[in-house]
Design a protein that fits this description.
Shape of chain A: globular
Largest interface: A-B, 79 and 78 residues
Strand content of chain B: 15-25%
Distance between the termini of chain A: 51 Å
Radius of gyration of chain B: 19 Å
Oligomer: heterodimer
Strand content of chain A: 15-25%
Helix content of chain A: 25-40%
Distance between the termini of chain B: 49 Å
Number of strands of chain A: 16
Largest sheet of chain B: 10 strands, mixed
Order of helices and strands of chain B: EHEHEHEHEHEHEEEEHEHEEHHHH
GO molecular function, one term (chain A): 3-oxoadipate CoA-transferase activity
Pfam families (chain A): CoA_trans
Family (chain A): Belongs to the 3-oxoacid CoA-transferase subunit B family.
Shape of chain B: globular
Organism (chain A): Capillimicrobium parvum
Number of helices of chain A: 9
Structural class of chain B: alpha/beta
Largest sheet of chain A: 6 strands, mixed
InterPro entries (chain A): CoA_trans_fam_I, NagB/RpiA_transferase-like
Number of helices of chain B: 12
Chain lengths: 292, 299
């Protein structure tokens, strides 16, 4: 077994949600490296024909993650192009959406996500970015995966300060009765475990714990009640092939680490990554510059 | 008919207190030359509308351009929170209207079609519905007895968009990412387009499949090369992540460091800005990155 980092366990678990069946579509939102890595990994392994839309590039190919190269690659390799609004109609509102990955500041036991404000909405302690399309998307996609760079009771909390969005109801029969998109549950992926909620009447249940993590640790770190099944399996370890693809082809610059850094540390790491991108870009100019 | 004008004139084309929709999304094709010109004009009265804002909104907030912001998201993505936006809202200095992106798009479409509202498969379960009674409502029709969620039409006074090329009649072409710019143009009373280059109408006709906004929607055309910089304008140039990092460092430091960043923009013309930020290999590097675009399938 290859040595792996915990974020690679997370990427591989998220990637397993992405499938080709039914021609459902996944739209990439803001550059959230961990989710992007999962999409690219699925395209390069078990779901080569899965539909991805990045920027306005429909059917974009898998691309290497970078600040300065990903958009051009998505655009050059895409099969169709649209502006946001028709794409939103076709996929989000047209209920062709497959997998929505969100990473919010808080999530609670009802599955509400907070991307708006910590503290009082009108006088926030921290004003967050806002949810973009997430409030509609968590309602209209088949699967919702919330991922977090840390697993603690502040993040997975009893009640979010503000519900920017919430998949409701969650139970399949209730969704079908209301004419809402059926399909998958709400899944949470953290550095400790995978939690899943399929039934409005039941709490999130522990689906699996990552290698080396105990069930008690997960329960103690979660701010809402969780169901603990009699048998809790261990999350699948990444394969040597997955590790090789992630490190050497999908994310050789190491952008996935951004999801785990904040403030000054993040800026310092950003400088490092951008220095590598500059060196590669200069090489490109030298190679493509006209001779003489 | 000639709609061509100059960037220096742009601030006077935007009325006092106007609701202005800014094009682009994430770090792609924001009309940054126009944003900088509003900063240079020391505007303080604009109600900005940004679907997916980034460095465009944060710069306008930091320079005091906006009196109100309607948005679905403002973020510097992997580079961190939008610092000026965050600080201004926390301090109670920037009134906001937060509308989820799909609903905001549908509201703009309703504006473009001159209907008062449109039904939307909306954000049920979001606190933003009750937060915004002037945006979200319900309607009952003669087709059934169920209430449906609707969003009220939004009709901005002005849209400002950055495009690849345009002719004197205002026919607008894009070849890469163009966000929701055609819908903004349809919804807004006055449409101002900045573009990488103004071309003859025969060049537009030669590739008419790239025309995404027909000239009858457009009022003013302005040539502004690298007008989306430091954002991307694929296929001409990639995102200048190095400049955005400089921006974010100044924004995180705040105070004098950020004031110096804004003062530098105010102290130079747009042509001088281009000379400064694209010095050395920068312009060629950004163009080469946008041109290269290797995918993992070809690798």
């Amino acid at each position: 077994m290859a040595k792996y980092d915990v974020h690679e366990v997370m990427v591989c678990r998220i990637a397993s949600e992405m499938t080709e069946e039914g021609d459902y579509v996944t739209i990439l939102g803001s550059f959230t490296p961990l989710a992007y890595a999962a999409y690219m990994l699925a395209k390069l392994t078990h779901a080569p024909d899965a539909w991805l839309v990045g920027y306005n590039a429909i059917g974009m190919p898998p691309v290497e993650l970078s600040f300065t190269g990903s958009e051009a690659a998505a655009y050059r390799g895409s099969l169709a192009r649209n502006s946001f609004t028709p794409n939103g109609h076709l996929v989000h509102l047209g209920t062709h959406g497959l997998l929505e990955c969100v990473s919010s500041a808080q999530m609670d036991g009802d599955g509400a996500i907070n991307l708006s404000a910590i503290g009082d909405y009108d006088h926030p302690k921290v004003r967050l970015p806002g949810g973009a399309g997430a409030p509609e998307v968590v309602q209209n996609y088949r699967k919702v995966v919330a991922y977090f760079s840390k697993h603690d009771a502040r993040t997975l909390c009893a009640k979010v300060d503000y519900a920017t969005g919430r998949r409701t109801p969650i139970s399949r029969d209730k969704r079908e009765a209301l004419g809402l998109v059926s399909g998958g549950p709400v899944t949470i992926v953290t550095p400790l475990a995978v939690l899943v909620k399929e039934d409005d009447e039941r709490p999130f249940a522990i689906e699996s714990v990552h290698p080396g993590v105990s069930v008690d640790e997960v329960v103690a770190a979660t701010g809402f009640a969780v169901d603990v099944p009699a048998d809790v399996p261990t999350t699948a370890e990444p394969t040597a092939e997955q590790i090789d693809l992630l490190r050497n082809r999908i994310d050789p610059l190491g952008t996935v680490r951004f999801d785990f850094l904040s403030g000054e540390e993040r800026l310092a790491y950003l400088e490092e990554v951008l220095a590598k991108e500059w060196a590669r870009a200069e090489e490109l100019v030298r190679v493509t510059a006209p001779v003489g | 008919m000639n709609k061509i004008t100059h960037l220096e004139r742009l601030p006077e084309l935007v009325g006092d207190g106007a609701v202005v929709a800014f094009g682009g999304g994430w770090f792609a094709n924001h009309p940054m030359a126009a944003v900088r010109e509003l900063v240079r004009a020391r505007r303080t009265d604009i109600h900005g509308l940004a679907l997916l804002g980034s460095v465009d909104v944060d710069l306008m907030v930091g320079a005091g351009v906006l009196r109100h912001l309607t948005f679905s998201m403002v973020t510097l993505e992997a580079m961190g929170l939008a610092q000026n936006f965050r600080r201004a809202v926390q301090a109670g200095e920037l009134p906001i209207t937060e509308i989820p992106a799909l609903s905001l798009q549908v509201a703009l479409e309703a504006g473009g079609q001159s209907v008062p509202f449109m039904p939307v498969r909306g954000p049920i379960g979001s606190d933003l519905v009750a937060q915004n009674p002037e945006v979200f409502g319900t309607a009952r029709t003669s087709f059934g007895d169920e209430d449906v969620m609707v969003v009220k039409a939004i009709r901005p006074d002005v849209a400002i968009i950055h495009a690849l090329r345009c002719d004197r009649l205002g026919n607008v072409q894009f070849d890469g990412t163009y966000s929701q710019d055609p819908e903004l143009a349809a919804a807004s009373d006055t449409v101002i387009v900045t573009c990488e280059e103004i071309v003859d109408s025969s060049e537009i006709a030669a590739q008419s499949h790239l025309t995404k906004i027909p000239g009858f929607l457009v009022d003013h055309v302005i040539e502004a090369p690298f007008g989306a910089h430091p954002c991307s304008h694929v296929p001409r140039y990639a995102q200048d992540a190095w400049e955005i990092l400089e921006y974010q460092k100044a924004a995180m430091a705040g105070g004098d460091a950020y004031a110096a960043y804004v003062d530098r923009i105010r102290g130079e013309t747009e042509a001088e800005y281009r000379e400064r930020v694209l010095a050395g290999d920068r312009g060629r590097v950004l163009a080469a990155l946008a041109e290269a675009g290797p995918t993992l399938q070809e690798a």
